[in-house]
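User: Let's play a game. I give you a shape written as C-alpha cells, and you guess the letters that built it. Ready? Here's round one.
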C-alpha cells in the first residue's frame, strides 16, 4: 500500500467540476505496479473558490468531490478523507498574532468532521 494525496485544490475546480489530470497518471502507475493506494483526499490545501473549512457549504462540496473521486477510481479501497482534522481546524482559526479564535476553531472543526463523515458515506 502507498499513501497518495491528490491535490484537492487542483482537482476540485467548482461545484460538480473536476480536473482529474493530476491524478490519472500516478494512480494508473500505482495500479500497474499492483500498489494499493490509500487515498488522502484532503491534506490541508483548499480550492480558492471555497472559503476554507469555515465555509458552511464545505461539507457538502467535499462529499461531492469524494463521491466523484470514488466513481472515477472504483478500484481504490482505502481512504483517509481528511488528514489531521484538529490540526487543519487549528490552522484555519489561528489569527495573524498567533492566538486562536475559539469560535472559528469550533466552526472549522465541526465542518471538517461533517465533511469527513459525509465523504465516508
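Assistant: Ready! My guess for every position:
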Amino acid at each position: 500500500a502507498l499513501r497518495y494525496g491528490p491535490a484537492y485544490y487542483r482537482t476540485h475546480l467548482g461545484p460538480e467540476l473536476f480536473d482529474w489530470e493530476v491524478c490519472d497518471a500516478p494512480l494508473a502507475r500505482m495500479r500497474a505496479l499492483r500498489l494499493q493506494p490509500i487515498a488522502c483526499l484532503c491534506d490541508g490545501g483548499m480550492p480558492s473558490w471555497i472559503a476554507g473549512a469555515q465555509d458552511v457549504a464545505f461539507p457538502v462540496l467535499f462529499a461531492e468531490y469524494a463521491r466523484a473521486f470514488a466513481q472515477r477510481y472504483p478500484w481504490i479501497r482505502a481512504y483517509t478523507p481528511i488528514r489531521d482534522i484538529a490540526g487543519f481546524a487549528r490552522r484555519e482559526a489561528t489569527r495573524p498574532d498567533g492566538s486562536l479564535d475559539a469560535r472559528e476553531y469550533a466552526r472549522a472543526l465541526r465542518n471538517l468532521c461533517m465533511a469527513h463523515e459525509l465523504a465516508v458515506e
